[in-house]
Specification:
The protein is mainly alpha-helical and about 80 residues long. The chain starts with a helix and ends with a helix.
């Protein structure tokens, strides 16, 4: 049983470390167009709003919990 756990952990570790390794490797070819990276005021505004909501509901989760409780009572 322990051997199966160690083997499974090794396979999972290999899988995730391979992803991290590929993220930091330089690209072999460059694309002729730009992918992603839209830098505009609206994208920064959306990120700021999401960050604010994340911090707000992370510190004070009561409003979200009441919505979830109400929704689960309806279903």
């Amino acid at each position: 049983m322990l051997g199966v756990l160690v083997l499974g952990s090794g396979i999972g570790l290999y899988y995730y470390l391979r992803i991290i390794y590929r993220m930091f490797m330089p690209e072999k070819h460059s694309l002729p167009y730009r992918v992603g990276g839209v830098e505009s005021v609206s994208s920064y505004a959306v990120l700021a709003i999401l960050l604010f909501l994340l911090l707000l509901f992370g510190v004070y989760p009561a409003p979200i919990m009441s919505i979830v409780a109400t929704a689960s009572a309806i279903i």
